[in-house]
Amino acid sequence: MKISFLAGLLVAVSQAAEPLLQQSGFVDPASGWTKWSAREEIAPRRFVDSTVSIGEPGSLAVSGNSNAAAYGGWERDIPGVAAGRWYRFSAAYRATGVGHENLQVLARLDWRTAEGKRAGQPEYVWRVEPLAGGWRRVSLEAAAPPKSAAARIQLYLQNAPQATVWWDDISFRDIAAPGPRKVTVAAVNLRPQRTGSAHESVARFVELVDQQVNGADVVLLPEGITIVSTGKSYADVAETIPGPVTATLGELAKRKNAYVAAGIYEREGHAMYNTAVLIGRKGEVVGKYRKVYLPREEIEGGLTPGNDYPVFDTDFGKVGIMICWDVQYADPARALALRGAELVLLPIWGGNEALGKARAIENRVFIASSGYNYPTYVMDPDGEILSIARTNGSIATATLDLNRSYADEWLGEMRGRMRKELRTDVR
User: Fold this and answer.
1) Do 131 and 269 fall within a single domain?
2) What is the mean pLDDT of the chain?
């Protein structure tokens, strides 16, 4: 009896693991797939190419056909979808002649009811990883919205007259629902007074964190912790990374078993930078970000701007950093979001609060700020403040779920949609 039950259970598990679609290799006509465009006059050329593939011979091809208005491609309905269940879609593609691949090569899941009407809002497939031979893989994990009975896979080429895209190795399967992915962030509101030295200023921050922060995964300190209230110049406090300050912050990170981010001033050769460091739980320097947008006061003070927007992998997700004046401009937060940042840390002196909120909303990221003349808070992708530290010497602490959906009822999941609709081709 036990053997029969276990055998049945194994069969059930095996059946559940079978993908609803797994296809590599295509022949003409492409069985199960249909051609779609909004109007015949803007229809791209769609064909099965027997000479190009990543697996079995043949792929689904879409060509702009020298038509700048061309928009469309291939579709297939996958029945057997259950509302509320999670699914994973993936496909490989290779493209030539594309000027703006992120915008013009488009994969979506368009959920459908049993009556064939749209259920919820389409999901934009935006995660991309490189493969061999010029191929890339796009993937998406998403829950089917209410009333869903099918998923319509849409593989398109958009407004790319000289381009061709080949789609292959397409998969759609039922997966287990991901659990919460929680991270606790503690943002520090502290402006030390009359410290007289970088060492003493840093010591004040460390003392406050030691006393008041417990159980955090990330501790965020403000911009310029080595210069605030010291009366010193940039040159007086600038040091190498790694250096004495990162060593001190590393010891703090180890004691708290937390990532620590802070703004300091870095010297490298003749150049000095307004830099934010990210220290790992074991005290190591995970990475650094050099402030790209310097206000004229910092340039006149001899600082050099950075030229990159790095994103750092942590044990809970992807983290980006902006510093103060960066929030005044749209591209730092946008670049971090496009590179996959889920949480943006903002060490800041002072700035426009409305723009901080806008950066969270437009890029669908969490933002934590630690400031002097700017609020110290933790904010969600809707621009709602989850925790705020209003007084000097206090901590804003919030636990975030990086797997939580912030989908809009009418617009859908904007984190993916923004990344796919963003017009980086227009100067």
Assistant:
1) no
2) 94
